[in-house]
Amino acid sequence: MKMKRHWRALLLFTVVALIAACGGGGTGDTSIPITSADDAPAPTADTGDTGGADTTGGEDTGGSAEGGSMTMLIGSSGDAETSAVQAAVDAWGEESGVSVEVIAANDLTQQLGQGFSGGNPPDIFYMSWDQFQTYAANGYLEPYAEELSNADAFYQSLRDTFTYDGSFYCAPKDFSTLGLVINTDAWEEAGLTDDDIPTNWDELADVAAALTTDGRAGLSFGLEYARIGVFMNQAGGTLVSEDGTTATADSPENLQALEYVQSLVEAGSLKFPSELGAGWGGEAFGQQTAAMVIEGPWINGALANDYPDVNYRVVELPEGPGGPSTFVFTNCWGIPAGSETRDQAIDLVEFLTSDEQQLAFSEAFGVIPSTESAAATYAEQFPDNEAFVAGNDYAVSPIAFAGAAEVIADFNASLEGFATGGDAQTILTTLQANLQAALDAANAG
Amino acid sequence: MTILARPRSRGLRGNEGPYGWLFTLPAILILGIFLVIPILLAIWVSFSNWNGLGPPVGGQADFVGTANYAEVLIQPGLARRDFGIAIRNNLYYVLLVVPIQTAVALFLAVQVNRRVLAARGFFRTAFYFPSVTSSVAITVVFLYLFSASGVVNGVLNWIRIRGPNWFADPRGVFHIVLGWLGVEGVPSLLAGEGPLGVTWWEWVSGPSVAMTALIALAVFTTSGTFMLLFLAGLQAIGSDIEEAALVDGAGPVRKFFSITLPMLKPTLFTVLTLGLIATWQVFDQIYLTGGGSPAKTTLTPAFLAYSASFESLKWGGGAAISFILFGIIVVLTIFQRWVLRDREGGSRRGRRRRARTARAAAVTAVRPGGHDTGGGGPT
């Protein structure tokens, strides 16, 4: 008798265990939450400084209806940005009755990938320009932007950045362009005046040489496509043809740009941040080992925090033989495809991209509004940054089609040999071959 | 006693089977859910075109055969070249880190095992300390130490050496040495394309200057751990054997090579295996030093699998790289096992030497402490 009871208990236990095991390994839909529930708390744990978050885990993000809650994943530049975004969504939450938890990601790309593969993406998130095409091509994103009431207010260059396959996917939240940042003390020391501000390549080479001293390079910028590419565009070169099917990297214009940069290196007036013991241009500029750098508006915050004593001004980049050009970098408000909170998220985006709210963000953490009208107001409010706003009139977005990232990474890697006398033509030939292969793959699939 | 009433054929312990399963069930379930199923899923992903959206099983992803493997192994293109470069980098990393860290660990273990050493406890703790510190923290410290104007270059400056800009220097060490020997540019002999789309000249580059800094980092952090394993092995060697060797007139060098090293062989095997696995999987340091920069010379397959998956959303390709890496590790471990196997019919000289050693040991010790001296090898 006793034995029988034992067997029954064993049988019961086994059945329960088997059900649990099947839940884990059976059909995909149930297997995923096991891993994601395990993973999801990781980002939540990092939100210590955001405060005011009143939703719990990741489980409940999907299915909530009116008056529910949403999660927002942002790649924050710091506490100022996180709290400004939290304040903005709280203000929206009071109207809509939806509470939004803002999560500042440690590694946005990784956490987004994790969220999507776990079937549990955030309801709204920062989508960077360089990942956008890859995400859109893989069907991760909801193409909602055309539905926004302010869809036409955005800069055309920003709309283009977030357009995939003819549809405008997501609303740009702000933008940055590259400008020439000049150390005004060094400038005066070298006997230069406002008339000397370089407007073309020759003048840039001249002032860079004039500003170069023993412990200081005249000019510095990161040795990467995001900077060198500007020179290529200024020379009139491109990497991809208009229709996006042919690689055009191996062109005389691009070669001219690389050779110009090389000539600055040879003249000793251009040194890369790594050569100056700095992690990026802004750091070299702050340490005054570089008198001029090519950076975006993010340099303002870095200098104010770490090097408040450096006096500087920002001017537009000099024109090349092919005319003026700069790069524009931007993020958009991404919404996952088929999201259940789609409508609320769109409503939130509309609120966040309103001129008023964007200017509030500008004030809090220095980004430039993505709508033309707000950017104009911004340029008036922050005259120091006028050059960054002006640059957007002729700015282009760096190439970012799905699969471009590896090609650009390879290009950047080959550029590192460039400082020590690499061959510009070889670099372009390799780039051309890789780019064409990646384009063919992207257009085929 | 109902048990006795059971059919005889079940044997004395017949009824314990179900209970055995019952008690092991938690472990089986946990391993199944967290180890076996994920591995099976990853195998499936490596043969599929899953793009990371939704669950990988159940209609979202299609079977694509060996396309993911072909892309990194066979098809000419960037993916294969990146993989080739990653393999090259990691190969040099393994070839340098494993022998150096093993030798250093053994040396340290022998030193702190000496009875005459003062403050042994202090040294043991000091040498082990880097191992218990987070690899992230140590990497960040090394980034500062090896920066262009960092401490390392400062010290080199005292002896009038202008140190390189460590973490920004993509030049291969062998290339630099060849340059000193007067080899300018790429010799035509090595200009051809080698395996995985990487030219022979690139294969023989040696680790880049940046990679040597990471190699130093790995040796620094892991030597302490392995020192501990060796120390456990050393303490299992009875002092009687050492005394016996001493009586037989063996000097410290002879004693080390004829007594200590042979008796540490099981530990040595453990250390080499663990070292081999860990070095092929190096990731943290790569992630922190910029994901392969400078010029991809610190790119490793483990990092490549990560970036293929999370950045390029090519989850299949990433999983394929992981399984190739797994294959490499398994093959190398088996190879290493074969090299370190007990050669019963080994060379004559070795046999004679072993016999001599055994005789020497037999003077005072009855048996050399059984076969497994280790006891320090974690599973």
Model description:
The complex is a heterodimer of chains A (445) and B (379). In chain A, α4 runs antiparallel to α15 (355-365) and α10 packs across α11. In chain A, β4 and β5 form a beta hairpin. By secondary structure, chain A is of the alpha/beta class. Helix content of chain A is 48%, strand content 12%. Chain A has helices at residues 2-25, 28-39, 41-45, 79-96, 108-117, 129-137, 156-161, 184-189, 201-211, 225-234, 252-267, 281-286, 298-306, 342-352, 355-365, 372-381, 386-391, 404-416, 424-444; strands at residues 69-74, 99-104, 124-128, 163-164, 167-168, 171-177, 179-183, 217-220, 290-295, 312-315, 328-334. A five-stranded mixed β-sheet of chain A has the order 2-1-3-11-6. Chain A folds into two domains: 66-177 and 329-391, Periplasmic binding protein-like II (D-Maltodextrin-Binding Protein, domain 2); 179-325 and 403-444, Periplasmic binding protein-like II (D-Maltodextrin-Binding Protein, domain 2, 3-Layer(aba) Sandwich), CATH 3.40.190. Chain B is an all-alpha fold. Chain B contains 17 helices and no strands. Chain B has helices at residues 2-5, 16-46, 67-73, 78-112, 120-132, 135-145, 151-158, 173-180, 200-203, 209-236, 239-247, 252-263, 265-280, 284-288, 301-311, 315-339, 348-362. In chain B, α6 packs across α10. The two termini of chain B are 41 Å apart. In chain B, 37% of the residues are buried. Chains A and B meet through α1, α2, α5, α6 and α18 of A and α2, α4 and α15 of B.
